[in-house]
Amino acid sequence: MSRKVVVVGAGFAGLVAARELQSAGIDVEVVEARDRIGGRAWTDDRMGAPLELGATWVHWHQPHIWAEITRYNQGIYASPDVDDAYWLSGGTVHRGTEEELDRRRERAMDRVYEGSRRFFPNPYNQLSALDDPALREEFLAADQRTVFDELADGDFSQEEIDLTDAYWSGGFIGEPRQGSVLMAKQWAALCDHNMAAVDAQTLGFKLDNGMRGLYEGVAGDLEKPVRLSTPVTGIAHTTTGAVVTLDGGEEISCDAVVVTVPVGALGTVSFDPPLPAPMAKVVAEKWNSTGAKIWIKVKGHHRILGMAPQPYPVNMLRSEVFTDDATIIVGFGSYHDRLDLDDPACGQRVIDQWRDDLEVIDCTGHDWVADRWSGQAWATPRTGQFTDSWHHFRDTGTRLHFAGSDWANGWRGVCVDGALEMGVTTARTVIRELA
Fold first, then answer.
1. For the whole prediction, is pTM greater than 0.90?
2. Residue 1: what pLDDT?
3. CA-based Rg of the chain, rounded to a whole angstrom?
Protein backbone atom coordinates (compact mmCIF):
# COMPACT_ATOMS: atom_id res chain seq x y z
CA MET A 1 0.00 0.00 0.00
CA SER A 2 1.43 3.36 -1.01
CA ARG A 3 -0.11 5.08 1.99
CA LYS A 4 1.35 7.19 4.79
CA VAL A 5 0.16 7.42 8.39
CA VAL A 6 1.54 9.60 11.17
CA VAL A 7 1.32 8.21 14.70
CA VAL A 8 1.48 10.86 17.43
CA GLY A 9 3.03 9.44 20.59
CA ALA A 10 5.43 6.55 21.23
CA GLY A 11 3.80 4.93 24.21
CA PHE A 12 2.54 1.36 23.95
CA ALA A 13 -0.53 2.33 21.92
CA GLY A 14 1.50 4.30 19.39
CA LEU A 15 4.29 1.73 19.05
CA VAL A 16 1.90 -1.19 18.59
CA ALA A 17 -0.27 0.79 16.16
CA ALA A 18 2.84 1.61 14.11
CA ARG A 19 3.93 -2.03 14.08
CA GLU A 20 0.47 -3.12 12.93
CA LEU A 21 0.29 -0.46 10.20
CA GLN A 22 3.80 -1.33 9.04
CA SER A 23 2.81 -4.99 8.70
CA ALA A 24 0.15 -3.92 6.19
CA GLY A 25 2.74 -2.17 4.04
CA ILE A 26 1.86 1.34 5.16
CA ASP A 27 4.58 3.98 5.49
CA VAL A 28 4.48 4.95 9.18
CA GLU A 29 6.12 7.89 10.90
CA VAL A 30 6.02 8.03 14.71
CA VAL A 31 6.60 11.39 16.39
CA GLU A 32 7.09 11.70 20.14
CA ALA A 33 7.21 14.90 22.23
CA ARG A 34 9.45 13.38 24.90
CA ASP A 35 13.10 12.46 24.51
CA ARG A 36 12.30 8.78 25.10
CA ILE A 37 9.75 6.14 24.12
CA GLY A 38 7.29 4.39 26.44
CA GLY A 39 4.92 7.20 27.35
CA ARG A 40 3.51 6.63 30.84
CA ALA A 41 5.37 3.33 31.00
CA TRP A 42 8.91 4.23 32.01
CA THR A 43 11.48 1.91 33.53
CA ASP A 44 14.35 4.00 34.89
CA ASP A 45 17.38 3.08 37.01
CA ARG A 46 17.13 4.99 40.26
CA MET A 47 18.13 4.39 43.87
CA GLY A 48 20.18 1.38 42.82
CA ALA A 49 17.38 -0.52 41.08
CA PRO A 50 15.23 -0.43 37.92
CA LEU A 51 12.02 1.28 38.99
CA GLU A 52 8.72 1.64 37.17
CA LEU A 53 7.86 5.33 37.31
CA GLY A 54 4.56 4.69 35.55
CA ALA A 55 2.78 1.45 34.61
CA THR A 56 4.05 -1.51 36.65
CA TRP A 57 1.94 -4.65 37.03
CA VAL A 58 0.83 -7.24 34.49
CA HIS A 59 -1.19 -10.47 34.56
CA TRP A 60 -1.87 -13.46 32.34
CA HIS A 61 -5.60 -12.68 32.48
CA GLN A 62 -4.91 -9.44 30.59
CA PRO A 63 -4.99 -10.76 27.02
CA HIS A 64 -3.18 -8.02 25.12
CA ILE A 65 -0.21 -7.61 27.44
CA TRP A 66 0.15 -11.37 27.71
CA ALA A 67 0.36 -11.65 23.93
CA GLU A 68 3.23 -9.13 23.93
CA ILE A 69 4.96 -10.87 26.84
CA THR A 70 4.83 -14.05 24.77
CA ARG A 71 5.95 -12.34 21.57
CA TYR A 72 9.03 -10.78 23.17
CA ASN A 73 9.88 -13.75 25.38
CA GLN A 74 9.55 -11.86 28.65
CA GLY A 75 9.09 -13.35 32.09
CA ILE A 76 7.16 -12.22 35.14
CA TYR A 77 7.63 -12.49 38.88
CA ALA A 78 5.39 -11.87 41.87
CA SER A 79 5.46 -8.79 44.05
CA PRO A 80 6.90 -9.59 47.50
CA ASP A 81 4.79 -11.18 50.22
CA VAL A 82 3.86 -8.98 53.14
CA ASP A 83 4.85 -9.77 56.73
CA ASP A 84 3.01 -6.88 58.39
CA ALA A 85 0.02 -4.82 57.29
CA TYR A 86 -0.75 -1.43 58.80
CA TRP A 87 -3.94 0.53 58.34
CA LEU A 88 -5.10 3.88 59.63
CA SER A 89 -8.65 4.35 60.85
CA GLY A 90 -9.96 6.99 63.19
CA GLY A 91 -6.45 8.38 63.55
CA THR A 92 -5.16 5.09 64.99
CA VAL A 93 -2.62 2.75 63.39
CA HIS A 94 -3.73 -0.88 63.38
CA ARG A 95 -1.42 -3.80 62.68
CA GLY A 96 -2.05 -7.32 61.45
CA THR A 97 -1.42 -9.69 58.57
CA GLU A 98 -2.33 -8.94 54.97
CA GLU A 99 -4.94 -11.67 55.19
CA GLU A 100 -6.51 -10.01 58.22
CA LEU A 101 -6.55 -6.65 56.46
CA ASP A 102 -8.20 -8.22 53.42
CA ARG A 103 -10.89 -9.80 55.62
CA ARG A 104 -11.61 -6.44 57.21
CA ARG A 105 -12.20 -4.74 53.85
CA GLU A 106 -13.84 -7.60 51.97
CA ARG A 107 -17.45 -6.91 52.97
CA ALA A 108 -17.31 -3.27 51.88
CA MET A 109 -15.48 -4.10 48.66
CA ASP A 110 -18.09 -6.73 47.81
CA ARG A 111 -20.75 -4.03 48.17
CA VAL A 112 -18.79 -1.72 45.86
CA TYR A 113 -18.52 -4.52 43.28
CA GLU A 114 -22.21 -5.45 43.62
CA GLY A 115 -24.05 -5.42 40.30
CA SER A 116 -20.95 -6.06 38.20
CA ARG A 117 -22.42 -9.24 36.71
CA ARG A 118 -25.63 -7.53 35.63
CA PHE A 119 -24.00 -4.36 34.32
CA PHE A 120 -21.01 -6.04 32.65
CA PRO A 121 -21.84 -9.58 31.49
CA ASN A 122 -19.15 -8.89 28.88
CA PRO A 123 -16.82 -6.28 30.40
CA TYR A 124 -15.34 -5.44 26.98
CA ASN A 125 -18.79 -4.26 25.88
CA GLN A 126 -18.88 -1.61 28.58
CA LEU A 127 -22.08 0.17 27.62
CA SER A 128 -24.28 -2.82 26.78
CA ALA A 129 -26.52 -1.98 29.75
CA LEU A 130 -27.61 1.19 27.93
CA ASP A 131 -29.26 -1.01 25.29
CA ASP A 132 -31.21 -2.96 27.92
CA PRO A 133 -34.46 -1.16 28.86
CA ALA A 134 -34.48 -2.98 32.20
CA LEU A 135 -30.99 -1.71 33.11
CA ARG A 136 -30.50 1.56 31.29
CA GLU A 137 -31.76 4.00 33.94
CA GLU A 138 -30.13 2.08 36.78
CA PHE A 139 -26.83 2.06 34.88
CA LEU A 140 -26.97 5.81 34.22
CA ALA A 141 -27.81 6.44 37.86
CA ALA A 142 -24.89 4.28 38.97
CA ASP A 143 -22.56 6.45 36.89
CA GLN A 144 -23.50 9.36 39.16
CA ARG A 145 -22.62 7.38 42.30
CA THR A 146 -19.29 6.96 44.09
CA VAL A 147 -17.92 4.04 46.10
CA PHE A 148 -19.08 5.85 49.26
CA ASP A 149 -22.63 6.12 47.93
CA GLU A 150 -22.61 2.33 47.65
CA LEU A 151 -21.76 2.04 51.35
CA ALA A 152 -24.14 4.74 52.57
CA ASP A 153 -27.17 2.47 52.94
CA GLY A 154 -25.32 -0.32 54.79
CA ASP A 155 -24.16 -0.97 58.34
CA PHE A 156 -20.50 -0.46 57.54
CA SER A 157 -18.06 0.49 60.27
CA GLN A 158 -15.77 3.50 60.08
CA GLU A 159 -12.86 1.11 59.63
CA GLU A 160 -14.51 -0.50 56.60
CA ILE A 161 -15.23 2.92 55.12
CA ASP A 162 -11.66 4.09 55.78
CA LEU A 163 -10.20 0.99 54.09
CA THR A 164 -12.47 1.54 51.09
CA ASP A 165 -11.34 5.17 51.00
CA ALA A 166 -7.68 4.14 51.07
CA TYR A 167 -8.00 1.52 48.34
CA TRP A 168 -9.94 3.66 45.89
CA SER A 169 -7.83 6.75 46.55
CA GLY A 170 -5.07 4.67 45.03
CA GLY A 171 -7.31 2.98 42.47
CA PHE A 172 -8.64 6.23 41.05
CA ILE A 173 -5.26 7.93 41.62
CA GLY A 174 -7.62 10.76 42.46
CA GLU A 175 -10.39 11.75 44.84
CA PRO A 176 -12.66 8.70 45.30
CA ARG A 177 -15.55 11.00 46.24
CA GLN A 178 -15.54 12.27 42.66
CA GLY A 179 -15.05 8.98 40.80
CA SER A 180 -17.73 6.90 39.08
CA VAL A 181 -18.38 3.62 40.88
CA LEU A 182 -18.93 2.00 37.47
CA MET A 183 -15.15 1.93 37.05
CA ALA A 184 -14.87 -0.21 40.16
CA LYS A 185 -17.64 -2.52 39.00
CA GLN A 186 -16.03 -2.94 35.59
CA TRP A 187 -12.69 -3.80 37.24
CA ALA A 188 -14.54 -6.51 39.13
CA ALA A 189 -16.10 -7.81 35.91
CA LEU A 190 -12.66 -7.96 34.26
CA CYS A 191 -11.51 -10.06 37.22
CA ASP A 192 -14.35 -12.59 37.45
CA HIS A 193 -16.19 -10.40 39.98
CA ASN A 194 -13.69 -11.24 42.70
CA MET A 195 -11.78 -8.91 45.06
CA ALA A 196 -8.72 -11.13 45.29
CA ALA A 197 -8.52 -11.35 41.49
CA VAL A 198 -8.70 -7.54 41.19
CA ASP A 199 -5.79 -7.26 43.61
CA ALA A 200 -3.81 -9.91 41.72
CA GLN A 201 -4.33 -8.30 38.31
CA THR A 202 -3.53 -4.76 39.41
CA LEU A 203 -0.82 -5.34 42.04
CA GLY A 204 0.43 -8.90 41.71
CA PHE A 205 3.10 -9.43 39.04
CA LYS A 206 5.87 -7.50 37.30
CA LEU A 207 8.07 -8.01 34.25
CA ASP A 208 11.55 -9.51 34.66
CA ASN A 209 13.04 -6.89 32.35
CA GLY A 210 10.64 -4.13 33.30
CA MET A 211 8.24 -2.35 30.98
CA ARG A 212 11.20 -1.25 28.87
CA GLY A 213 11.77 -4.89 27.96
CA LEU A 214 8.48 -4.69 26.07
CA TYR A 215 8.39 -1.15 24.70
CA GLU A 216 11.96 -1.40 23.45
CA GLY A 217 11.06 -4.72 21.86
CA VAL A 218 8.14 -3.22 19.94
CA ALA A 219 10.22 -0.21 18.87
CA GLY A 220 12.95 -2.54 17.68
CA ASP A 221 10.52 -4.09 15.20
CA LEU A 222 9.79 -0.76 13.51
CA GLU A 223 11.55 -0.05 10.23
CA LYS A 224 11.81 3.69 10.93
CA PRO A 225 13.22 5.17 14.14
CA VAL A 226 10.84 7.15 16.32
CA ARG A 227 11.33 10.90 15.98
CA LEU A 228 11.95 11.96 19.59
CA SER A 229 11.67 15.48 21.05
CA THR A 230 9.17 16.25 18.29
CA PRO A 231 5.97 17.77 19.73
CA VAL A 232 2.90 18.14 17.53
CA THR A 233 1.21 21.52 17.69
CA GLY A 234 -1.60 21.13 15.17
CA ILE A 235 -3.54 18.60 13.12
CA ALA A 236 -5.72 19.50 10.12
CA HIS A 237 -7.95 16.57 9.20
CA THR A 238 -10.41 15.84 6.40
CA THR A 239 -12.24 12.83 5.03
CA THR A 240 -9.32 12.11 2.70
CA GLY A 241 -6.21 12.87 4.71
CA ALA A 242 -4.47 14.98 7.32
CA VAL A 243 -1.64 17.47 7.80
CA VAL A 244 0.38 17.24 11.02
CA THR A 245 2.23 20.40 12.10
CA LEU A 246 5.29 19.94 14.31
CA ASP A 247 6.79 22.37 16.79
CA GLY A 248 9.00 24.55 14.62
CA GLY A 249 6.59 24.66 11.70
CA GLU A 250 7.38 21.46 9.74
CA GLU A 251 4.29 19.94 8.15
CA ILE A 252 3.74 16.26 7.34
CA SER A 253 1.00 15.37 4.90
CA CYS A 254 -0.48 11.91 5.34
CA ASP A 255 -3.45 9.75 4.52
CA ALA A 256 -4.43 9.36 8.19
CA VAL A 257 -3.19 10.29 11.65
CA VAL A 258 -3.41 8.24 14.86
CA VAL A 259 -3.26 10.35 18.03
CA THR A 260 -2.30 8.55 21.25
CA VAL A 261 -2.03 11.69 23.40
CA PRO A 262 -3.96 11.26 26.68
CA VAL A 263 -6.86 13.53 27.57
CA GLY A 264 -4.75 15.51 30.03
CA ALA A 265 -2.43 16.69 27.24
CA LEU A 266 -4.82 16.97 24.28
CA GLY A 267 -5.05 20.68 24.94
CA THR A 268 -1.47 21.02 23.64
CA VAL A 269 -2.68 20.14 20.12
CA SER A 270 -4.82 22.41 17.94
CA PHE A 271 -7.32 20.58 15.73
CA ASP A 272 -8.76 21.92 12.46
CA PRO A 273 -11.68 21.51 12.38
CA PRO A 274 -11.99 21.62 16.18
CA LEU A 275 -12.97 18.48 18.05
CA PRO A 276 -16.75 17.99 18.25
CA ALA A 277 -18.45 19.26 21.41
CA PRO A 278 -18.69 15.89 23.22
CA MET A 279 -14.93 15.37 22.80
CA ALA A 280 -14.06 18.96 23.68
CA LYS A 281 -16.10 18.60 26.88
CA VAL A 282 -13.99 15.64 28.01
CA VAL A 283 -10.74 17.48 27.22
CA ALA A 284 -11.93 20.49 29.22
CA GLU A 285 -13.11 18.45 32.22
CA LYS A 286 -10.22 15.95 32.19
CA TRP A 287 -10.34 12.71 34.17
CA ASN A 288 -10.46 12.18 37.92
CA SER A 289 -6.70 11.63 37.80
CA THR A 290 -4.89 14.05 40.09
CA GLY A 291 -2.56 11.80 42.08
CA ALA A 292 1.00 10.57 42.12
CA LYS A 293 3.13 7.49 42.64
CA ILE A 294 6.18 7.73 44.90
CA TRP A 295 9.11 5.36 45.48
CA ILE A 296 10.64 5.53 48.97
CA LYS A 297 13.89 3.83 50.03
CA VAL A 298 14.30 2.88 53.71
CA LYS A 299 17.13 1.24 55.62
CA GLY A 300 16.86 -2.50 56.20
CA HIS A 301 14.51 -5.13 54.81
CA HIS A 302 10.82 -4.71 55.60
CA ARG A 303 7.90 -6.50 53.97
CA ILE A 304 5.08 -4.10 54.76
CA LEU A 305 1.74 -2.90 53.43
CA GLY A 306 0.05 0.34 54.44
CA MET A 307 -3.41 1.82 53.86
CA ALA A 308 -4.69 5.25 54.94
CA PRO A 309 -7.82 7.23 54.01
CA GLN A 310 -8.04 10.86 52.95
CA PRO A 311 -6.57 13.34 53.76
CA TYR A 312 -3.29 11.43 54.22
CA PRO A 313 -0.88 12.22 51.35
CA VAL A 314 -0.23 8.54 50.53
CA ASN A 315 -3.17 6.16 50.72
CA MET A 316 -1.67 2.83 49.64
CA LEU A 317 1.89 1.63 50.15
CA ARG A 318 3.78 -1.67 49.87
CA SER A 319 7.33 -3.03 49.74
CA GLU A 320 8.38 -3.88 46.19
CA VAL A 321 12.19 -3.95 45.72
CA PHE A 322 15.00 -5.16 47.99
CA THR A 323 18.62 -4.11 47.67
CA ASP A 324 21.51 -5.40 49.77
CA ASP A 325 20.69 -3.24 52.77
CA ALA A 326 17.45 -1.42 51.98
CA THR A 327 13.83 -1.72 50.89
CA ILE A 328 12.24 0.37 48.14
CA ILE A 329 8.57 0.92 48.83
CA VAL A 330 5.95 2.17 46.37
CA GLY A 331 3.11 4.45 47.40
CA PHE A 332 0.07 6.06 45.76
CA GLY A 333 -1.69 9.26 46.75
CA SER A 334 -4.74 11.08 45.38
CA TYR A 335 -3.15 14.52 45.08
CA HIS A 336 0.17 15.07 43.35
CA ASP A 337 0.60 18.50 44.93
CA ARG A 338 0.71 16.96 48.43
CA LEU A 339 3.93 15.14 47.61
CA ASP A 340 7.47 16.30 46.84
CA LEU A 341 8.55 13.17 45.04
CA ASP A 342 12.28 13.84 45.25
CA ASP A 343 12.48 15.06 48.85
CA PRO A 344 13.51 12.42 51.43
CA ALA A 345 11.84 14.52 54.13
CA CYS A 346 8.53 14.06 52.31
CA GLY A 347 9.20 10.33 52.09
CA GLN A 348 9.90 10.24 55.82
CA ARG A 349 6.58 11.94 56.59
CA VAL A 350 4.82 9.36 54.45
CA ILE A 351 6.48 6.39 56.14
CA ASP A 352 5.82 7.94 59.56
CA GLN A 353 2.09 7.58 58.87
CA TRP A 354 2.49 3.88 59.69
CA ARG A 355 6.05 3.29 60.97
CA ASP A 356 7.97 6.13 62.61
CA ASP A 357 10.83 3.76 63.44
CA LEU A 358 11.96 3.39 59.79
CA GLU A 359 14.66 5.66 58.36
CA VAL A 360 14.15 7.01 54.84
CA ILE A 361 17.28 7.21 52.69
CA ASP A 362 15.84 8.58 49.45
CA CYS A 363 12.70 8.93 47.41
CA THR A 364 11.84 9.52 43.77
CA GLY A 365 9.05 9.49 41.22
CA HIS A 366 7.63 11.36 38.25
CA ASP A 367 4.76 13.82 38.46
CA TRP A 368 2.60 12.72 35.55
CA VAL A 369 -0.11 15.29 36.31
CA ALA A 370 2.39 18.15 36.07
CA ASP A 371 4.00 16.60 32.97
CA ARG A 372 2.92 18.66 29.95
CA TRP A 373 2.80 15.60 27.71
CA SER A 374 0.47 13.57 29.93
CA GLY A 375 -1.38 15.91 32.32
CA GLN A 376 -2.66 12.90 34.24
CA ALA A 377 -1.72 9.55 35.66
CA TRP A 378 -4.02 6.80 34.39
CA ALA A 379 -7.50 7.54 33.05
CA THR A 380 -10.16 7.25 35.78
CA PRO A 381 -13.66 8.62 35.10
CA ARG A 382 -15.43 11.22 37.19
CA THR A 383 -19.06 10.64 38.05
CA GLY A 384 -21.03 10.82 34.82
CA GLN A 385 -17.99 10.24 32.61
CA PHE A 386 -18.19 6.46 32.34
CA THR A 387 -21.25 6.76 30.07
CA ASP A 388 -20.38 10.13 28.50
CA SER A 389 -16.71 10.45 27.59
CA TRP A 390 -14.32 7.88 26.14
CA HIS A 391 -16.60 6.41 23.46
CA HIS A 392 -16.96 9.80 21.74
CA PHE A 393 -13.37 9.48 20.52
CA ARG A 394 -14.05 6.30 18.54
CA ASP A 395 -15.16 8.01 15.32
CA THR A 396 -14.38 11.56 14.22
CA GLY A 397 -15.82 11.20 10.72
CA THR A 398 -12.44 12.09 9.21
CA ARG A 399 -8.99 10.54 8.87
CA LEU A 400 -8.23 11.58 12.46
CA HIS A 401 -8.15 8.59 14.80
CA PHE A 402 -7.55 8.24 18.52
CA ALA A 403 -5.83 5.37 20.30
CA GLY A 404 -4.44 4.91 23.79
CA SER A 405 -5.54 3.44 27.09
CA ASP A 406 -7.93 6.37 27.70
CA TRP A 407 -10.28 4.88 25.09
CA ALA A 408 -9.94 1.15 25.77
CA ASN A 409 -12.85 -1.27 26.03
CA GLY A 410 -11.23 -3.30 28.78
CA TRP A 411 -8.48 -2.06 31.09
CA ARG A 412 -8.92 1.62 30.36
CA GLY A 413 -6.10 3.63 31.88
CA VAL A 414 -4.75 1.64 34.78
CA CYS A 415 -3.04 -1.16 32.83
CA VAL A 416 -0.89 -1.30 29.71
CA ASP A 417 -3.37 -3.87 28.42
CA GLY A 418 -5.82 -1.15 27.38
CA ALA A 419 -3.18 0.78 25.46
CA LEU A 420 -2.20 -2.34 23.53
CA GLU A 421 -5.85 -3.14 22.82
CA MET A 422 -6.48 0.28 21.32
CA GLY A 423 -3.18 0.36 19.41
CA VAL A 424 -4.14 -2.79 17.53
CA THR A 425 -7.85 -1.94 17.20
CA THR A 426 -7.25 1.56 15.84
CA ALA A 427 -4.53 0.42 13.46
CA ARG A 428 -6.80 -2.24 11.98
CA THR A 429 -9.53 0.38 11.54
CA VAL A 430 -7.10 2.62 9.64
CA ILE A 431 -5.90 -0.29 7.49
CA ARG A 432 -9.47 -1.12 6.47
CA GLU A 433 -10.21 2.55 5.81
CA LEU A 434 -7.17 3.05 3.59
CA ALA A 435 -7.68 -0.21 1.75
1. yes
2. 53
3. 21
